[in-house]
Write the structure tokens for this entry.
Amino acid sequence: MRSINLFKRSDAANIALMRSQFEAFSRQLPLLYFTLMVNSIAVAYTHVETAPVFMSKVIPSILCAGCTLRLLVWARRRALGTVLTDGQIAVRMRNTVILVVLFGMAFTFWGLSLYPYGGAYERSHVAFYMSITVIACIFCLMHMRMAALLLTAIVLGPFVVFFSLTANTVLMAIAMNVVLVTVTMVKVLLTYYRDFADLVNAKKVLEDKQQQLLALNSENQRLANIDSLTALPNRRHFLALLGKHFADERLDETRFAVGIVDLDGFKQVNDLHGHRAGDSLLREVGQRLAAFVSDDLQIARLGGDEFGLLFARVCSSDALLSISSALCDALRKPYALSETTMRISATIGIALFPEAGRTAEQLFERADYALYHAKAHRRGQATIFSEQHESTIRHLGSIEQALRQADLEREMNLHFQPILNVATGEVVSYESLARWHSPTLGKIAPDVFIRVAEKSDLIHELTAVLLHKALAFMEKSDPRIGVSFNLSARDIASPDAVECIRQIVLQSGVDTSRLTFEVTETAIIEDFAKGREALSRLSALGAKIALDDFGTGYSSLHCIHQLPLNSVKVDRTFVGDIERDRLAQGIVRTIVELCRNLSLSCVIEGVETERQAAALAELGCNFMQGYHFGKPAAMDDCAVRHPNLKLPFPASGCVG
């Protein structure tokens, strides 16, 4: 048992070596038992005539039966293919060592017991049987060092002692030869076993490294497909899932949908409370969205405050809108972050396959357009891409093509709308407004073609052409009158575009104090830091900066405080019912007072009636703009040719 414990301490400690020993020995086991049985049957056969039946038939039959039974057990286990645990393997290897000891003692005792029977040939056969059998068994047990050494000691010891006591020189010489050969075999066995163990260890090291590489690769794959902030799948994973749907052979039999979720008000939260609060908000949004994930709905973060939805199976549009509405409701609930509570909403654009598109790119673009339409008309709700949207896309596509082929210098023009100081009735400035008359499409609304230009790469070229025209008008007009020029979000976001604008202004030689650049809150909020830098560079020219559509954004006070502003233009939404709406009156009065305290000019847009102008005047508004004072007019309009014309207050609206 001491040898068994030694085996347990040495081999069982190395699991990989133990398993390799077990697998190698399992392949050698049939050969071991076959050799043992054949040699034993041969020596028993030569002693049938000389030895008693018990010695020549009964004992070898029992021993061979034991070998056969053991062989059948091992064969059955291998046929079942049962995966053994490390503990089970250790037990079976210990049992194997015990069986080797028992079988070795039994066959050795039987072989030496046959020696007295028969003549010189039979006795030589016994010596040959024992020597050749032990060598064969050592070879078969070379992967189990302990078992091989124990068998060598069990067989070789009695063999040498027994034949040394026979006083037969030949048998004694045979015994010495067997000892030398066996010692050599043991030396070979130990060397082989050491090389075998080294090979197994090297293989184990390689497998461990391979496992580490696989684990690292798996982790990299996970990280490459997971958004670290929200723990949702990322854009790459989302597009891969979408690609799998289109690669499915049963594509034509399925009906699925792609959705894009955009958070309304997230940028304002990010700007007002900082990126840490924005990240916390996105994590909470991710958790709420993750609650909707199922086999039929996959959700991923596409980037920023946009999330992707992949509806694997769509029963109906109503069911799709129902799930989407539930998503919007979940995201609309208050967010308790740190010491404040925030509220945002979510707008969703959805595109169905195959109605909206038959490729991944088309479906994604249609969902994006549905989102754009929803944010403009159904903010905070879900919109499914429809045939009407498709017609609009085709129309916008034709506008883009016409815009790309247009002679911008010839086809683009500016109209000018006066801004008045109502206290004196004088025109103090004109806002330049783009107009396009296409030879192929006719007149195109400014909000349409400017939006198309912004979504393409044409906006910077368009801005440059229109700015040249505005500066040309300034050279011809009264030097006391200013001109406002609108910049797009794309212009503000591009340092190259801002530098181009600066160079155009510098090369024109106009008095830059007469020039005002108008920007919207939306354009600034897209990237506040970059927008502030751009406006500072334009302000350095000596030009003025006006914040347009003030009051429609989420961070108006933040914009006023942080930006190099000279004036604020209050959005027309506050003017419509200003004579009766006390809330609107209060808001306008507050904005006017705020601007006065900050030394900013305040211009009220969208004044269309005399009553509105009178009500605004009572609230302290001095500068107004709108159809009541003049519609946008071309350069050769009478009001533009005579900028010194004073319009008595209240104005009659004769301009344009």
